[in-house]
Amino acid sequence: MQNTSQVVARNLNIFDGSSLLIVGMPDDDLLSQLDYSQAFTWDYSVYSMLSQSGFENLSWGAELKSDQLFKQVLMFMPKSKPELDLLFAMVSSKMEIGGELLLVGAKKEGINSVAKKLSTVGENPIKLDMARHCQLWSVIKSIESKPFNLDDWLKEYEYSAGEDTLTAVSIPGVFSHGRLDDATALLLENLGKIPSGRILDFGCGCGVLGAMISKRNPEAMVELVDINALALYCAEKTLARNNLKGKIYPSNGLRDVTGRFNGVYTNPPFHSGVKTNYSITETFIRTVPDHMAKNAPFRLVANSFLKYAELIDGALDRYAVVTENTKFRVYKAFR
Ligand SMILES: C[S@@+](CC[C@H](N)C(=O)[O-])C[C@H]1O[C@@H](n2cnc3c(N)ncnc32)[C@H](O)[C@@H]1O
Predict the structure, then answer these.
(1) Ligand 1 binding pocket includes 186 (Cβ within 6 Å)
(2) pLDDT of residue 5
(3) CA–CA separation, 243 vs 90, rounded Å?
(4) Quick one: 126 and 191 in the same domain?
(5) How many CB atoms lie within 10 A of CB 39?
(6) For position 272, what pLDDT does the model report?
(7) What is the Cα–Cα distance from 74 to 76, expressed in whole angstroms?
(8) Residue 6 burial by Cβ neighbours in a 10 Å radius (0-12, 13-18, 19+)
(9) Which of 85, 190, 326, 332 is deepest in the core (most CB within 10 A)?
(10) Burial of 243 by CB count in 10 Å (0-12 exposed, 13-18 middle, 19+ buried)?
């Protein structure tokens, strides 16, 4: 069990079994110890793993949908700090006055500094427990919350590559919120000729790559996949904002992707939440040939220090570095 879950598990007596909402839980078996009404996550891999383990009343999506107001909410610190305000606003709008909000998180995730934010929900938050480098906080909701509207959190920015300028729609916590990422910008300037037919944008974030691909070649049928429901929500908004078409769906790595693509483009993840995690991209590179048509191009941008060159060379043909700057490198190869 993860450290945060262990801290919750040693405090089971604080849960009174009445209308408990759990938000952002890890994919361990903590849920088997709790009597909960609903468990919500943005993370498709957590949702898939818990569903496969037989847990019920799980929900995955950009927004928590419930007509019910909950008496108790157990919230795990979200993967990135920018998501925290959004999550507080969403969760507190689903709580009744007098209800209890419990927040658990690791010190390295910044739980220490979060207590201040709890006072936007109610007065005098208290630290209930600390163990395993984690803390558990509680606050009783006393402040009426505004109705929550996810679209109020969206931001737009323009981005360009070559002659083309598009508008990206993003939200806190989604890559990349507020401005185009420098690595993505380098890939966008070096997309090469986009084939027609099925094209994959792996780890699409708010959809900047997929949208530019669709703009460059209207014959490209772009599929944008990501693990994060908020990313997919934004990707959908980005395509719509630019009158572009694409298929948007969740996939953990390439697990939920079927068939073969005529091209694959990515600025892949190297983080799971706050932790560095190269294994997602390593597995993606090893398995991507099974999803590519013969001679299909592959383009990937990454930090130059990441050791993907050998992997790409081993998995695909005609490997080369297209361009690089002091920080990033764009690789190309073909199936
Ligand atoms: C570096 S960001 C790139 C986002 C976007 N393509 C861009 O360039 O702005 C990587 C994306 O991969 C997603 N991701 C992380 N783990 C994943 C997984 N296991 N399967 C699919 N996508 C994942 C993240 O949610 C994030 O949106």
Answers:
(1) no
(2) 97
(3) 29
(4) no
(5) 24
(6) 67
(7) 7
(8) middle
(9) 332
(10) exposed
Q: Is the distance from the beta carbon of residue 252 to the nearest atom of ligand 1 less than 6 Å?
A: yes
Cis peptide before 176 (omega within 30 of 0): yes
Query: Hey, which of 42, 179, 204 would you mutate to test ligand 1's pocket, going by the most ligand atoms within 8 Å of its Cβ?
Result: 204
CB-based contact 230:164 (threshold 8 Å)? no
In contact, 222 and 213? CB cutoff 8 Å = yes
Contacts by residues 281-287 (CB-CB < 8 Å, ≥ 24 positions apart): 281/306, 281/308, 282/308, 282/311, 283/253, 284/202, 284/253, 284/254, 285/311, 285/312, 285/315, 286/311, 286/315, 287/253, 287/254
Q: Kindly give the parts of the chain with pLDDT less than 70.
A: 272-275
**In the structure encoding, which two tokens stand for residue 247, read together?**
């298929």
Note whether 142 and 159 are same-domain residues.
Answer: no
Tens-place pLDDT, residues 240-270: 999 999 999 999 999 999 999 999 999 999 8
Ligand 1 lined by 209 (C-beta under 6 Å): yes
DSSP assignment string, 218-230: TTEEEEEEESBHH
The reply to whether 219 and 304 lie within a common domain is yes
Q: What single letter denotes the amino acid at residue 180? A: L
The closest-lying atom of ligand 1 relative to the alpha carbon of residue 301 is: 8
Handedness of CA 233, 235, 240, 244 (dihedral sign): negative
Decide: 205 in ligand 1 pocket, CB within 6 A: yes
Can you give the CATH number for the domain in which 52 is found?
3.40.50.150
Domain count, the chain: 2
The per-residue pLDDT for range 142-162, each reduced to its tens digit, is 999 889 999 999 999 999 999
Q: Domain limits at 113? A: 3-150
Which residues, listed in sequence order, are joined to residue 300 by a DSSP beta bridge?
266, 331
Shared domain for 25 and 39, answered yes or no, is yes
Q: What is the DSSP string of 58-109?
A: EEESSS---SSPEEEEEEEPPSSTHHHHHHHHHHHTTEEEEEEEEEEEEGGG
CA–CA distance, 6 with 1 (Å, rounded to integer): 6
